[in-house]
């Protein structure tokens, strides 16, 4: 994990080792396969985990990268910038960074930024400069992110 190097183990003689002391435990699944249970998973639990299984014929080690998926806060608005209408769509505090697109087929200029935040999340913003003849009444930004399941549609309204 980020700042912790520890060991949780179970031996065939049923003795257990836990140098982590943070609530993680080894459990057995319904098929008897052991798994690591992490209650109240947080970003502090992110990191590289090693799973080592020893048996009479040798051993097997798996290296597993564990990271959190954090749902972004999504917002959309329409603003005026230098006498031009600009649609702004934001996905703040997500992990990994969200993807933003627009539902318009109009040939317009857009600008995209993805900013890493101090807490390991990302804020993504997409600005769409609208031509004067474009109606914003049906303008929607589309945000995709692993935590959302399906794409999120955000209607852009004047601010």
TrEMBL record:
Domain of life of the organism encoding this protein: Eukaryota
A Pfam family that the UniProt record links to this protein: C2-set_2
GO CC aspect terms: cell surface; membrane
Membrane protein topology class: Single-pass membrane protein
InterPro entries per UniProt: CD200R, CD80_C2-set, Ig-like_dom, Ig-like_dom_sf, Ig-like_fold
Compartments where located: Membrane
Keywords for this protein: Disulfide bond, Glycoprotein, Membrane, Receptor, Transmembrane, Transmembrane helix
GO molecular function, one term: signaling receptor activity
GO biological process: regulation of neuroinflammatory response
Domain Ig-like, residue spans: 72-158
Gene3D superfamilies: Immunoglobulins (2.60.40.10)
Family the entry assigns: Belongs to the CD200R family.
Name this polypeptide is given: Ig-like domain-containing protein
Organism: Scleropages formosus (Asian bonytongue)
């Amino acid at each position: 994990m980020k700042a912790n190097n520890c060991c949780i183990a179970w031996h065939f003689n049923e003795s257990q080792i836990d140098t982590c002391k943070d609530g993680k435990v080894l459990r057995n699944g319904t098929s008897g396969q052991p798994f690591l249970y992490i209650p109240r998973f947080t970003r502090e639990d992110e990191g590289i985990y090693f799973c080592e299984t020893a048996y009479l014929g040798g051993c097997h080690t798996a290296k597993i990268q564990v990271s959190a998926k954090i749902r972004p806060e999504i917002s959309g608005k329409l603003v005026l910038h230098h006498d031009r209408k600009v649609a702004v769509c934001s996905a703040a505090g997500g992990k990994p960074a969200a993807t933003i697109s627009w539902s318009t087929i109009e040939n317009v200029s857009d600008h995209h930024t993805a900013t890493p935040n101090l807490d390991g999340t990302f804020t993504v913003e997409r600005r769409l400069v609208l031509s004067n003849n474009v109606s914003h009444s049906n303008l929607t930004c589309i945000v995709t992110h692993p935590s959302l399941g399906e794409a999120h549609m955000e209607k852009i309204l004047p601010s």
